[in-house]
């Protein structure tokens, strides 16, 4: 009798991030706790045999529900005082992807992105169309005020006061090579994301954000744009980025990084190269997590901090800088 062939079972890996910026000391514990909880929840999915896509969705959902981060509840506000959310989820085995942008009535945009990935022939929905699609597939629509925190109303008010006094810059588009002026813009990079490799060797990536403080309503950043703030392909790597979106979008930086891995560069080096390129080409700031199909990974940022967590065969660990 022939021995049946088995699909090899690999040690799974999950990496999460909770934004890259000048995280103040008094917020450090909240960031570490947040990424730790996301890691625990997502990794439990992987160890039970769940898919990379399931694990990424679970981890990002935890980060969206945590008011520490600029995603889901407690996100930065638009110039008109509302929360507008963007998210993308991508399955590296099939290249199926689901994206939503400018949604105001969904508590967990990453779950709406999952519905797009699973249930639609399309890849991307925006605004009320995205909300209607999610509602038609069973998601609850909430009032936007349920996502708005008093902390964020105050932050927006203070920012708009500074604008009125000429002390803040409305023209900033994320590119600034001067460290002094760049530092004044580094307070808004709490986008969250996750990349995973499951026991079957499949990759997935997800990124979710409330975008930048005082953004013009309707503005979409890099996070939910395929190949910009998020990408996954079993033939190259899975990636999630955080940082000011405009420079990341202009460089299609997620795909840039995964293409490097496909060409033989290690994820560790490709992550460093991506962040160096972001700064050298456009003066951009941010962070990246990058995971290859063999479990090799890379993390990099050029901001003072990046909240990160990794769980793999060596156990879970978290940190605030690389
Ligand atoms: N990286 C998030 C944004 O710029 O919207």
Secondary structure topology:
Layout: E1 13-21, H1 25-47, H2 52-65, E2 85-91, E3 97-103, H3 109-119, E4 124-126, H4 127-136, H5 150-164, H6 179-183, E5 192-197, E6 203-209, E7 230-232, E8 238-243, H7 245-250, H8 253-262, H9 267-282, E9 286-291, E10 297-301, E11 305-312, E12 315-319
Parallel strand pairs: 3-4
Antiparallel strand pairs: 1-5, 1-11, 2-3, 2-6, 5-6, 7-8, 8-9, 9-10, 11-12
Helix pairs in contact: 1-2, 2-3, 8-9
Glycine (GLY) binds at residues 191, 209, 211-212, 221-223, 229, 242-245.
How does this model look, in words?
The structure is a single chain. The chain is α+β, with helices and mostly antiparallel strands. The protein has a domain at 13-77 and 170-319: Glutamine Phosphoribosylpyrophosphate, subunit 1, domain 1. The protein contains nine helices and twelve strands. It has helices spanning 25-47, 52-65, 109-119, 127-136, 150-164, 179-183, 245-250, 253-262, 267-282, and strands spanning 13-21, 85-91, 97-103, 124-126, 192-197, 203-209, 230-232, 238-243, 286-291, 297-301, 305-312, 315-319. The chain has an eight-stranded mixed beta sheet. A hairpin with a 5-residue loop joins strand 9 and strand 10. Helix 1 (25-47) packs antiparallel against helix 2, helix 2 runs antiparallel to helix 3 (109-119) and helix 8 (253-262) runs antiparallel to helix 9 (267-282). It is globular and about 60 Å long. The relative contact order is 0.19. Residues 1-6 have low confidence and may be disordered. It binds glycine.
């Amino acid at each position: 009798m022939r021995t049946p062939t088995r699909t090899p079972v690999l040690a799974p890996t999950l990496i999460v991030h909770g934004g890259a910026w000048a995280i103040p000391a008094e917020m450090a514990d909240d960031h570490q706790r947040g990424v730790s909880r996301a890691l625990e929840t997502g990794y439990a999915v992987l160890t039970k045999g769940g898919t990379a896509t399931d694990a990424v969705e679970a981890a990002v959902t935890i980060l969206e529900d945590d008011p520490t981060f600029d995603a889901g509840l407690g996100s930065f506000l638009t110039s008109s005082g509302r929360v507008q959310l963007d998210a993308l989820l991508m399955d590296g085995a099939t290249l199926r992807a689901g994206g939503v942008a400018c949604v105001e009535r969904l508590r967990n945009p990453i779950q709406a992105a999952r519905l797009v990935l699973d249930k639609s022939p399309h890849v991307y929905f925006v605004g009320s169309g995205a909300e209607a699609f999610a509602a038609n597939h069973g998601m609850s629509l909430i009032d936007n005020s349920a996502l708005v925190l008093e902390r964020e109303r105050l932050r927006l008010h203070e920012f708009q006061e500074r604008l009125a006094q000429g002390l803040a810059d409305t023209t900033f588009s994320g590119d600034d090579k001067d460290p002094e002026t760049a530092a004044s813009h580094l307070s808004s990079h709490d986008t969250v994301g996750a990349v995973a490799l499951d026991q079957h060797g499949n990759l997935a990536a997800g990124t979710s954000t409330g975008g930048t403080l005082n953004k013009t309503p309707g503005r979409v950043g890099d996070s939910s744009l395929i190949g910009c703030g998020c990408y996954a392909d079993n033939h190259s790597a899975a990636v999630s980025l955080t940082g000011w979106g405009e420079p990341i979008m202009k460089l299609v930086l997620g795909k840039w990084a995964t293409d490097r891995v496909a060409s033989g560069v290690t994820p560790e080096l490709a992550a460093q190269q991506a962040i160096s390129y972001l700064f050298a080409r456009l003066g951009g700031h941010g962070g990246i997590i990058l995971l290859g199909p063999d479990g090799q990974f890379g993390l990099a940022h050029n901001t003072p901090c990046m909240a990160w967590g990794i769980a793999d065969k060596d156990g879970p660990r978290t940190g605030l800088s690389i």
